[in-house]
Amino acid sequence: MPTYKAPVENALFLLNDVFHIERYGNVPSFAEATPDTVAAVLSEGGKFVEEVLQPLNRVGDLEGCERHSDGSVTTPKGFKEAYRALTEGGWIGLAMEPEFGGQGLPHTIAIIMTEFMTSANMAFAMYPGLTQGAFLAIRLHGNDEQKKTYLPRIANGEWAATMNLTEPHCGTDLGMLRTKAVPQPDGSYKITGTKIFISGGEHDLASNIIHLVLARIEGAPAGTKGISLFIVPKFLVNKDGSLGARNGVSCGSIEEKMGIHGNSTCVMNYDNATGWLIGAENRGLNAMFTMMNEARLGVGVQGLSMSEVAYQNAVAYAKERLQGRSLTGPKNPDKPADPIIVHPDIRRVLMTMRAFNEAARAFVIWTALQGDLVMQGEDEKTRQAADDYMGLMTPVLKGFLTDMGFQNAVLAQQVFGGHGYIAEHGMEQFVRDARIAMIYEGANGIQALDLVGRKLPKDGGRAAMAYFAELSAFIKAHAGDEAMQPYVKPLEAALGDLQKATMWFMQNAMQKPDNAGAGSYDYMHLFGLVQLGYMWAQIAKVALEKKSKGNGAAAEMDAKLTTGRFYMERMLPETAAHLARIQSGADAVMALPAEAF
Amino acid sequence: MPTYKAPVENALFLLNDVFHIERYGNVPSFAEATPDTVAAVLSEGGKFVEEVLQPLNRVGDLEGCERHSDGSVTTPKGFKEAYRALTEGGWIGLAMEPEFGGQGLPHTIAIIMTEFMTSANMAFAMYPGLTQGAFLAIRLHGNDEQKKTYLPRIANGEWAATMNLTEPHCGTDLGMLRTKAVPQPDGSYKITGTKIFISGGEHDLASNIIHLVLARIEGAPAGTKGISLFIVPKFLVNKDGSLGARNGVSCGSIEEKMGIHGNSTCVMNYDNATGWLIGAENRGLNAMFTMMNEARLGVGVQGLSMSEVAYQNAVAYAKERLQGRSLTGPKNPDKPADPIIVHPDIRRVLMTMRAFNEAARAFVIWTALQGDLVMQGEDEKTRQAADDYMGLMTPVLKGFLTDMGFQNAVLAQQVFGGHGYIAEHGMEQFVRDARIAMIYEGANGIQALDLVGRKLPKDGGRAAMAYFAELSAFIKAHAGDEAMQPYVKPLEAALGDLQKATMWFMQNAMQKPDNAGAGSYDYMHLFGLVQLGYMWAQIAKVALEKKSKGNGAAAEMDAKLTTGRFYMERMLPETAAHLARIQSGADAVMALPAEAF
């Protein structure tokens, strides 16, 4: 049976020693996020997920969710109690505003808790996860009455929430959506249509489910410019806040999926359901993007989470499983064989995961911190810079981290040999669960297109130029530091590849947009590799400082320096292959006529 | 529901136009393998798998195998009838010797049929697949009575066969195996022990199951030098060939696995079961390697098979699914959107699979042809050269093709977006099924070690040097051919990387063997990439010749030339990243003490 221990220490090291969150005391939500408070919250959160959520991971996979003939859905055994404990602990509202009943902590802290929850039980963590985006959408785009009605009970977990975008004939291309909204004399709308792949569309965890639904108001323009966003609660809410009649929305079926069986993925039928417009007419996509950016960050975290828990279990197995002898002579001479961790190829796999995990966690925390600054930064310049960074990095974080998370779950499974393919060890569940993160919230190919086609050229490339300048300044600042060269030199080369690729798009994609499309996926990975390299360089700097000051455990700092070096020598050089593919352009990619396939 | 069409035309193109099998008429099994016969066999075989096996693929996944309380095992609905049709068609004995009731065709033809069967239904194809290796082991190592007793009924499919190696505490490290064999006065042995992960260990397809079992004769030396191979039939066979008493071997349980649910993966309990030694005492591993090399070739083919069927379904979906518009303007202006095959990133994925499939098929066919020459080549030099090639290439074929097959199943699933994650489309089954091929018959990390640690240095590196010389000669021979430069130039660069990596091992791994272990996996992939590059160069040459002679459909030849160019521009350059990782050595891989993980 798999185990999990929340990496609290590592998160605190990144928050305090690498990113110095004490510097952000002027940001409202950080005021009370003192090192002691944060340590207490994360340590309590870690304990909660280890003791309450992780033991339910396998039962969730085996049992899955069941839809009954009346359309109600039962979640796996134990999920209801765990959800109640989650709400009672105040975990859902951790980063929500106190005026709506939240704890008011930074998102930076909440995202770490999301990582922990997802490692422990991804299918479970998706229920409260989706609620986060819905809260934000209502808070930013809802009117006062909507905020007052829904937010406090979303924040305390009494009500859950969903996002309803996809229809059978349209996923990525939302311009084709058909669900219609007919205005009623009382200001409400009647919503009719079918939505698919709705995570947590129906379940037994909360007393009400607030659906945020994209639909087209009768007579609205075709395409994406005619889409509006609606609040459609499962139970209508009376003036006094009590639950009223059942609304015309129901779960038609549950999908049979590859993984995340503990989460109910529903076909939702809207049949003259009562809904209320949120935000402006025909501006629904705009409001939905608020949720999607939040959700994309959360999905990127899932890649890290799966990689971390898979890594932990692979390490435990590699230390315990005896098979073969070390190439350099027996390490365990009084036993019939050495533990497989002595074999370089097993090490290669473990180091690959390890080198990803810590840098990916840094990437996630840094990005969430920028998210807090977008909302609460004290001046326009700060907010602007943070927003530029978020826009540019969200597709990289979502696409790159989920690809790597899946790859690492597969690597971890491989460490187990045949036992990795057997369900009881739990490794194959990590692979099946991790797979979805590459697909939902915009398949990773769409993330890559968003990066190259939209985020890169936005505002004359301002965000990318600021990013390149930041890295160049870091590299320059450490040019004279001998001990930093194993980190800074490879980073410089990789940044050069990223800049060359960017330049190549500028010169070749205007006239021939297929050149951008054909190189977009490689560019997303190239960007992700550079970003993790930058994270490692910053971690290495802190580790070197701590070592030289005799401050912090030397062995732990050495482990960071070694892991960072592995990243630089073994993973970062892949940037060159990405650049070569990008520069080969679209010719060979597009030359074959469609009929020839 | 997924579909499958056997790529008969492509196999015939490779056999006839690229590898000119008519040249091998002097090899006994090729004498009757005229182009017409081969075309008829493959076309009939293709029809059989499309009509009989493929429709059972999903039901096999859904139903799985069931073990009853008496230890008997029922295969999924329809498997029994399909197996009967397979035996009646003579497909199991296609490449087995006529003296034992086989059809006597080359293995080169049988391996293509294995590809087709596996694409159509991998879990089903494993039942007859394992029989192939057992047949060979008995034919090469059994005595006359054993051959007479078992081979004809294995060849006609009346009896099935299995390989029993793994035990709970030992998989890769067979030296630790504990199953014991006690000699009996009548020359038989009593076998006692537990074997796990036995594919097809028990089922209802055949009237008897012949288990080949590794065990240790009482008093034999410890380690691998004390292992012998035994024949242990499920039902003892009477002198007259009729079935006698039930032997002391039974299925204790069926494993719950990630995929290949239609194949029964059994825990087999041997409790004083009667067995007969096959081959010499304590030389069991040697005999077992005969089966394992055969099986490794078959497993490598599974990588190709899964990639091919996943590709076909991804192409069909990409042509049909309407979503978004081409970057170069609408291609489908009268419809609400363009088919997704217009998008460069979808093309990139389809081309990646396509560029793998045809070259991997060439690799498989060429290797099987060498296998035929090992057995039947007319002179020692021919047999030797073929054997060198087989030894060197078996780990590459197994490891590289199964890694890529899985990767491509994942890519194909991605083309379907959310629909790829849903069971009904069948794409997630391909991913789950393809995953096992990277693990069994020696996990791919073991293949890599076998390549670098054993096959490469064997006979002073003779096999590798012959391979490098062959490629160099090919490159030199086409140095003046302008049209071949887009294929020969990249191949030359990639071969250079392979040679540099080989040299690096020679210079750095003697003193420090961890340098070999740390680079072995990258070396296996580097080798595989070069080999597929060589296959594409040969295909390109034929396509150019056919075009210039106006011989063969020009559009088809153009498609090959384009696909080959894609391979050269987009896939082959990855060799540089592998070389960089190899040359970074073992330092960063091994530096961390085990406790630090």
Features:
homodimer, 597 residues, alpha+beta, Butyryl-CoA Dehydrogenase, subunit A, domain 3, five-stranded mixed beta barrel, two-stranded antiparallel ribbon, 55% helix
Helix content of chain A: 40-55%
User: What is the CATH architecture descriptor of the domain at 288-455 in chain A?
Assistant: Up-down Bundle
The strand line-up of the biggest sheet of chain A is 4-5-11-7-6
Q: Kindly report the greatest chain-chain contact and the residue count on each side.
A: A-B, 93 and 94 residues
Distance from N terminus to C terminus of chain A (CA atoms, Å) equals 44 Å
| Gyration radius of chain A, in Å | 24 Å
Number of helices of chain A: 18
Instruction: Please tell me what the overall shape of chain A is.
Output: globular
Named CATH topology of the domain at 288-455 in chain A: Butyryl-CoA Dehydrogenase, subunit A, domain 3
What is the CATH superfamily of the domain at 288-455 in chain A?
Butyryl-CoA Dehydrogenase, subunit A, domain 3
Which class best fits the helix and strand makeup of chain A? alpha+beta
Describe the largest sheet of chain A: 5 strands, mixed, barrel
Oligomer: homodimer
Number of DSSP-assigned strands of chain A: 11
Query: What is the H-and-E element order of chain A?
Result: HHHEEHHHHEEEEEEEEEHHHHHHHHHHH
Residue windows where pLDDT falls under 50 for at least 5 positions of chain A: none
The chain-level mean pLDDT of chain A equals 96
Strand % of chain A is 5-15%
